[in-house]
Q: What sequence folds into this?
C-alpha cells in the first residue's frame, strides 16, 4: 500500500503562530499587573497565559512538523507530532488546574485584599486579547492539537471574565471571596476539557481503535458484500490522527485467479462504508500462516 500524505491545515498553523505571539505579549503585562494589584485571578491567569504561550508555541511547532512527508525514519510521516503536543498540553492544563485549586482554597480560608480598578482595566484588555485568539482558533474542532491549544485560550478567556466579575464585586460590594470562588469555577470548566484532550490523544498514542470504527461490523460487512471472501480475521485498526484511520486485516478467500480484484473490492467497501482509505490486506487461500 502506498501512503500519500497531503499538507494538513496550513491555515490552522498560521493562526496558531499569530495566537502564540498575541498571548505571549500580553502575558507579561498581566503578570506585572497581577503582582501590583494582588489579584489572584490575574496572577493565576498570567500563569495560565504562560502555559498557554508555551502550549501554543508547542502546538505551532508540532503543526509545522506534522506537515513533513514520510521518510526512512518515520515511514508514516510526522502527523503524530500534533497528537503528542495535544497530550502534553492536556497534562500542563491539568497541572494548572491543580495549582489554581490550591491557591484558591487558601484564599477562601483567608481572603486577601486586591486593587479592583487596575484589575478591571487589565482584565478587560485581557478579555479582548483572548477573545481575538479564541476567534482565530475555535473553528478547527477536528485537530486535537489545535483543540487543546484552543482550550488553553478558552481558559484564559474565562480567567479574564472571572477577573472582571471579581473586580466589580470587590469594588461595589467589598466581597473579597469573589476572587477565589470564580477561580474555582474556572477550574471546573477547564478540568472537563483537559480530561477530554488527554483521553483522546492518549487513545491515539496507544494505537486504540478509532472512534466510530466497529471491528465486528467490518468483518460482517466485508464477508457479506465481497463475494470471494470466506472469512475476515486479525483485524487491527488505529489512527495517525483523528482524521487518518488505518487498518490491517487478513482475508481468507475462495481460490481465485483475481486476487487483485478481491483486494480492490475490500478496499472499496472499507472506503465507502467505513471511511477508511488506508488499509493493508493479506489475502489467504488456505489456513492463516499466523494462526499460531
A:
Amino acid at each position: 500500500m502506498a501512503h500519500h500524505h497531503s499538507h494538513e491545515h496550513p491555515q490552522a498553523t498560521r493562526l496558531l503562530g499569530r495566537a502564540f505571539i498575541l498571548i505571549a505579549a500580553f502575558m507579561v503585562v498581566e503578570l506585572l499587573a497581577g503582582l501590583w494589584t494582588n489579584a489572584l485571578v490575574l496572577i493565576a491567569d498570567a500563569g495560565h497565559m504562560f502555559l498557554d504561550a508555551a502550549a501554543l508555541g508547542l502546538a505551532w511547532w508540532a503543526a509545522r512538523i506534522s506537515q513533513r512527508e514520510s521518510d526512512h525514519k518515520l515511514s508514516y510521516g510526522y502527523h503524530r507530532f500534533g497528537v503528542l503536543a495535544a497530550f502534553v498540553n492536556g497534562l500542563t492544563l491539568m497541572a494548572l488546574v491543580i495549582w489554581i485549586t490550591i491557591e484558591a482554597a487558601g484564599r477562601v480560608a483567608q481572603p486577601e485584599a486586591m486593587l479592583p480598578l487596575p484589575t478591571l482595566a487589565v482584565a478587560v484588555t485581557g478579555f479582548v486579547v483572548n477573545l481575538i485568539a479564541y476567534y482565530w482558533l475555535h473553528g478547527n474542532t477536528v485537530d486535537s492539537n489545535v483543540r487543546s491549544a484552543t482550550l488553553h485560550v478558552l481558559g484564559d478567556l474565562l480567567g479574564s471574565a472571572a477577573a472582571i466579575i471579581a473586580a466589580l464585586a470587590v469594588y461595589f460590594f467589598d466581597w473579597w471571596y469573589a476572587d477565589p470562588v470564580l477561580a474555582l469555577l474556572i477550574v471546573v470548566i477547564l478540568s472537563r476539557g483537559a480530561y477530554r484532550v488527554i483521553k483522546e490523544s492518549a487513545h491515539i498514542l496507544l494505537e486504540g481503535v478509532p472512534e466510530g470504527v466497529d471491528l465486528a461490523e467490518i468483518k460482517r460487512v466485508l464477508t457479506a458484500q465481497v463475494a470471494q471472501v470466506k472469512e475476515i480475521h486479525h483485524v487491527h485498526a488505529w489512527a495517525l490522527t483523528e482524521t487518518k484511520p488505518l487498518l490491517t486485516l487478513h482475508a481468507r478467500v475462495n481460490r481465485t485467479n483475481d486476487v487483485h480484484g478481491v483486494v480492490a473490492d475490500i478496499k472499496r467497501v472499507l472506503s465507502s462504508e467505513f471511511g477508511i482509505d488506508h488499509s493493508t490486506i493479506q489475502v489467504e487461500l488456505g489456513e492463516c500462516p499466523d494462526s499460531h
